[in-house]
Amino acid sequence: MDLNQLSTKLAVRLDEFGFGIGIPIMLLSLLLLVQGYRRLQIVTLIVGGGIGFVLSPDIIPLLNEFGLALEPLQMTAAICLGCGLILSASVLASARLLTSAFIFISFTTGLETLNNYGFDIERSELWSGVAALLALFFTMGINKMLPSIFSAVFAAYGLLLGGLLITGNSVSTFEPVEIKTFILMLPIVVLSLLLQNHDKAKQQELELTKDEPDAKTKQAQQHFLKL
Fold first, then answer.
1. Rounded to an integer, what distance in angstroms lies between the CA atom of residue 184 and that of residue 165?
2. What is the pLDDT of residues 2-57, one digit of tens each?
3. Which of 4, 104, 135, 227 has the highest Cβ tally under 10 A?
4. 10 and 55 in contact (C-beta within 8 Å)?
5. What does the pLDDT look like over 109-149, one tens digit per residue?
6. Which residue did the predictor score with more confidence, 225 or 158?
7. 193: closest CA among 27, 37, 19, 55?
8. How far is CA 93 from the centre of its chain?
9. In 3D, which of 149, 162, 222, 157 has the Cα closest to residue 192?
10. Per-residue pLDDT at 66
11. What is the 3-state secondary structure (H, E, C) of the chain?
12. Higher pLDDT, 102 or 63
Protein backbone atom coordinates (compact mmCIF):
# COMPACT_ATOMS: atom_id res chain seq x y z
CA MET A 1 0.00 0.00 0.00
CA ASP A 2 1.52 3.32 -1.12
CA LEU A 3 1.24 6.75 0.48
CA ASN A 4 -1.74 7.83 -1.63
CA GLN A 5 -3.70 4.74 -0.62
CA LEU A 6 -2.88 5.33 3.04
CA SER A 7 -3.99 8.97 2.84
CA THR A 8 -7.21 7.89 1.15
CA LYS A 9 -7.82 5.29 3.87
CA LEU A 10 -7.14 7.93 6.52
CA ALA A 11 -9.65 10.34 4.95
CA VAL A 12 -12.29 7.60 4.78
CA ARG A 13 -11.69 6.65 8.43
CA LEU A 14 -11.93 10.28 9.50
CA ASP A 15 -15.26 10.55 7.68
CA GLU A 16 -16.44 7.46 9.56
CA PHE A 17 -15.50 8.92 12.95
CA GLY A 18 -16.99 12.29 12.00
CA PHE A 19 -17.94 14.49 14.97
CA GLY A 20 -16.13 12.25 17.48
CA ILE A 21 -12.71 12.88 15.94
CA GLY A 22 -13.50 16.44 14.88
CA ILE A 23 -13.58 17.74 18.46
CA PRO A 24 -10.04 16.51 19.40
CA ILE A 25 -8.68 17.88 16.11
CA MET A 26 -10.24 21.26 16.85
CA LEU A 27 -8.85 21.31 20.40
CA LEU A 28 -5.32 20.42 19.27
CA SER A 29 -5.56 23.00 16.50
CA LEU A 30 -6.62 25.68 18.99
CA LEU A 31 -3.63 24.75 21.17
CA LEU A 32 -1.34 25.19 18.18
CA LEU A 33 -3.12 28.42 17.28
CA VAL A 34 -2.11 30.07 20.57
CA GLN A 35 0.92 28.16 21.89
CA GLY A 36 2.17 26.25 18.87
CA TYR A 37 5.77 27.47 19.05
CA ARG A 38 6.22 25.61 22.37
CA ARG A 39 3.70 22.78 21.85
CA LEU A 40 4.43 21.74 18.27
CA GLN A 41 6.50 18.66 19.08
CA ILE A 42 3.97 17.34 21.62
CA VAL A 43 0.99 17.99 19.36
CA THR A 44 2.62 16.35 16.34
CA LEU A 45 3.43 13.33 18.52
CA ILE A 46 -0.22 13.08 19.60
CA VAL A 47 -1.51 13.61 16.05
CA GLY A 48 0.90 11.01 14.70
CA GLY A 49 -0.27 8.55 17.34
CA GLY A 50 -3.88 9.24 16.36
CA ILE A 51 -3.07 8.65 12.70
CA GLY A 52 -1.39 5.39 13.62
CA PHE A 53 -4.46 4.32 15.60
CA VAL A 54 -6.76 5.10 12.68
CA LEU A 55 -4.56 3.29 10.17
CA SER A 56 -3.63 0.35 12.42
CA PRO A 57 -6.38 -1.99 11.07
CA ASP A 58 -4.80 -1.65 7.62
CA ILE A 59 -1.18 -1.81 8.80
CA ILE A 60 -1.51 -4.82 11.16
CA PRO A 61 -2.23 -7.32 8.33
CA LEU A 62 0.88 -6.03 6.53
CA LEU A 63 2.97 -6.60 9.67
CA ASN A 64 1.53 -10.11 10.08
CA GLU A 65 2.85 -10.97 6.65
CA PHE A 66 6.37 -10.42 8.00
CA GLY A 67 5.72 -12.99 10.74
CA LEU A 68 5.61 -10.66 13.73
CA ALA A 69 4.23 -12.65 16.66
CA LEU A 70 2.59 -9.83 18.62
CA GLU A 71 -0.85 -9.28 20.05
CA PRO A 72 -3.09 -6.84 18.14
CA LEU A 73 -3.05 -4.45 21.10
CA GLN A 74 0.76 -4.48 21.20
CA MET A 75 0.92 -3.91 17.44
CA THR A 76 -1.54 -1.02 17.69
CA ALA A 77 0.49 0.59 20.47
CA ALA A 78 3.72 0.14 18.49
CA ILE A 79 2.11 1.62 15.36
CA CYS A 80 0.79 4.62 17.30
CA LEU A 81 4.17 5.27 18.88
CA GLY A 82 6.01 4.81 15.59
CA CYS A 83 3.69 7.12 13.66
CA GLY A 84 3.91 9.74 16.41
CA LEU A 85 7.70 9.69 16.44
CA ILE A 86 7.89 9.71 12.64
CA LEU A 87 5.56 12.69 12.29
CA SER A 88 7.29 14.66 15.05
CA ALA A 89 10.75 13.95 13.62
CA SER A 90 9.55 14.72 10.09
CA VAL A 91 8.25 18.13 11.11
CA LEU A 92 11.53 19.02 12.83
CA ALA A 93 13.60 17.71 9.91
CA SER A 94 11.53 19.54 7.34
CA ALA A 95 11.90 22.76 9.35
CA ARG A 96 15.69 22.43 9.25
CA LEU A 97 15.67 21.61 5.53
CA LEU A 98 13.43 24.58 4.76
CA THR A 99 15.68 26.85 6.80
CA SER A 100 18.79 25.69 4.93
CA ALA A 101 17.08 25.93 1.53
CA PHE A 102 15.63 29.38 2.23
CA ILE A 103 18.96 30.77 3.44
CA PHE A 104 20.87 29.23 0.51
CA ILE A 105 18.45 30.64 -2.07
CA SER A 106 18.30 34.06 -0.38
CA PHE A 107 22.06 34.54 -0.06
CA THR A 108 22.82 33.06 -3.50
CA THR A 109 20.33 35.45 -5.09
CA GLY A 110 21.74 38.35 -3.07
CA LEU A 111 25.35 37.59 -4.04
CA GLU A 112 24.45 37.26 -7.73
CA THR A 113 22.56 40.54 -7.61
CA LEU A 114 25.50 42.34 -5.99
CA ASN A 115 27.89 40.80 -8.52
CA ASN A 116 25.75 42.20 -11.33
CA TYR A 117 26.24 45.66 -9.82
CA GLY A 118 30.02 45.21 -9.57
CA PHE A 119 30.31 44.09 -5.91
CA ASP A 120 32.41 40.89 -5.86
CA ILE A 121 31.89 39.82 -2.27
CA GLU A 122 33.31 36.32 -2.71
CA ARG A 123 36.82 37.63 -3.44
CA SER A 124 36.82 40.08 -0.55
CA GLU A 125 37.82 38.61 2.82
CA LEU A 126 36.11 41.45 4.71
CA TRP A 127 32.77 41.23 2.93
CA SER A 128 32.88 37.42 2.92
CA GLY A 129 33.20 37.52 6.70
CA VAL A 130 30.34 40.01 6.97
CA ALA A 131 28.18 37.77 4.76
CA ALA A 132 29.02 34.75 6.92
CA LEU A 133 28.00 36.62 10.10
CA LEU A 134 24.77 37.78 8.47
CA ALA A 135 24.02 34.20 7.43
CA LEU A 136 24.61 33.03 11.01
CA PHE A 137 22.28 35.60 12.58
CA PHE A 138 19.75 35.10 9.80
CA THR A 139 19.75 31.35 10.47
CA MET A 140 19.20 31.91 14.18
CA GLY A 141 16.29 34.24 13.47
CA ILE A 142 14.64 31.87 10.99
CA ASN A 143 15.05 28.94 13.39
CA LYS A 144 13.14 30.92 16.02
CA MET A 145 10.39 31.86 13.60
CA LEU A 146 9.81 28.51 11.88
CA PRO A 147 8.10 26.71 14.82
CA SER A 148 5.54 29.52 14.96
CA ILE A 149 5.00 29.43 11.20
CA PHE A 150 4.67 25.64 11.10
CA SER A 151 2.27 25.72 14.05
CA ALA A 152 0.17 28.43 12.42
CA VAL A 153 -0.14 26.44 9.18
CA PHE A 154 -0.99 23.21 11.00
CA ALA A 155 -3.50 25.03 13.20
CA ALA A 156 -5.24 26.56 10.19
CA TYR A 157 -5.36 23.23 8.38
CA GLY A 158 -6.59 21.42 11.50
CA LEU A 159 -9.33 23.96 12.15
CA LEU A 160 -10.63 23.61 8.61
CA LEU A 161 -10.43 19.82 8.82
CA GLY A 162 -12.13 19.75 12.23
CA GLY A 163 -14.81 22.13 10.99
CA LEU A 164 -15.61 19.80 8.09
CA LEU A 165 -15.87 16.79 10.41
CA ILE A 166 -18.04 18.57 12.98
CA THR A 167 -20.44 19.87 10.34
CA GLY A 168 -20.73 16.44 8.72
CA ASN A 169 -18.89 17.27 5.48
CA SER A 170 -16.62 14.75 3.78
CA VAL A 171 -12.88 15.08 4.37
CA SER A 172 -12.03 12.92 1.34
CA THR A 173 -13.18 15.76 -0.96
CA PHE A 174 -11.01 18.36 0.82
CA GLU A 175 -8.10 19.58 -1.32
CA PRO A 176 -5.39 21.28 0.79
CA VAL A 177 -3.56 22.70 -2.25
CA GLU A 178 -6.43 24.60 -3.82
CA ILE A 179 -6.41 28.41 -3.95
CA LYS A 180 -9.63 28.63 -1.93
CA THR A 181 -8.01 26.58 0.85
CA PHE A 182 -5.07 29.01 0.88
CA ILE A 183 -7.45 31.97 1.09
CA LEU A 184 -9.27 30.37 4.03
CA MET A 185 -6.06 29.45 5.83
CA LEU A 186 -4.24 32.77 5.39
CA PRO A 187 -6.21 34.85 7.97
CA ILE A 188 -6.01 31.97 10.46
CA VAL A 189 -2.24 31.76 9.98
CA VAL A 190 -1.84 35.51 10.52
CA LEU A 191 -4.05 35.38 13.63
CA SER A 192 -2.04 32.44 14.98
CA LEU A 193 1.27 34.29 14.50
CA LEU A 194 -0.12 37.30 16.39
CA LEU A 195 -1.44 35.12 19.23
CA GLN A 196 1.83 33.21 19.49
CA ASN A 197 3.83 36.44 19.65
CA HIS A 198 1.50 37.63 22.43
CA ASP A 199 2.04 34.35 24.28
CA LYS A 200 5.81 34.73 23.87
CA ALA A 201 5.65 38.19 25.42
CA LYS A 202 3.62 36.85 28.35
CA GLN A 203 6.09 34.03 28.92
CA GLN A 204 8.97 36.49 28.92
CA GLU A 205 7.16 38.66 31.48
CA LEU A 206 6.59 35.63 33.70
CA GLU A 207 10.28 34.74 33.52
CA LEU A 208 11.21 38.29 34.50
CA THR A 209 8.79 38.33 37.44
CA LYS A 210 10.27 35.06 38.72
CA ASP A 211 13.67 36.71 39.02
CA GLU A 212 12.30 39.71 40.89
CA PRO A 213 12.30 39.53 44.72
CA ASP A 214 8.99 39.36 46.57
CA ALA A 215 7.45 42.26 48.53
CA LYS A 216 9.05 41.32 51.88
CA THR A 217 12.50 41.05 50.33
CA LYS A 218 12.06 44.42 48.62
CA GLN A 219 11.00 46.01 51.93
CA ALA A 220 14.00 44.52 53.72
CA GLN A 221 16.34 45.75 50.97
CA GLN A 222 14.89 49.25 51.16
CA HIS A 223 15.29 49.27 54.95
CA PHE A 224 18.87 48.08 54.62
CA LEU A 225 19.63 50.84 52.14
CA LYS A 226 18.26 53.50 54.48
CA LEU A 227 20.59 52.39 57.22
1. 16
2. 556 666 777 777 778 778 888 888 898 898 899 888 888 888 888 888 888 877 88
3. 135
4. yes
5. 766 666 676 666 666 666 666 666 666 666 666 667 778 88
6. 158
7. 37
8. 11
9. 149
10. 72
11. CCHHHHHHHHHHHHHHHCHHHHHHHHHHHHHHHHHHHHHHHHHHHHHHHHHHHHHHHHHHHHHHHCCCCCCHHHHHHHHHHHHHHHHHHHHHHHHHHHHHHHHHHHHHHHHHHHHHCCCCCCCCHHHHHHHHHHHHHHHHHHHHHHHHHHHHHHHHHHHHHHHHHHCCCCCCCCCCCCHHHHHHHHHHHHHHHHHHHHHHHHHHHHHHHHHCCCHHHHHHHHHHHHC
12. 63
Q: Residue 18, by phi and psi: left (phi above 0), alpha (psi -120 to 50) or beta?
A: left
CA–CA distance, 201 with 199 (Å, rounded to integer): 5
Give yes or no for residue 62 having a pLDDT over 80: no
The model scores a pTM over 0.85: no
Residue type, 11: A
2 φψ region: left (φ > 0), alpha (ψ -120 to 50), beta (else): beta
d(CA 22, CA 14): 8
Dihedral angle at the C-alpha atoms of 101, 150, 45, 7, nearest 10 degrees?
-80
Contacts of 40 (CB under 8 A, 6+ apart): 32, 91, 147, 150, 151, 154
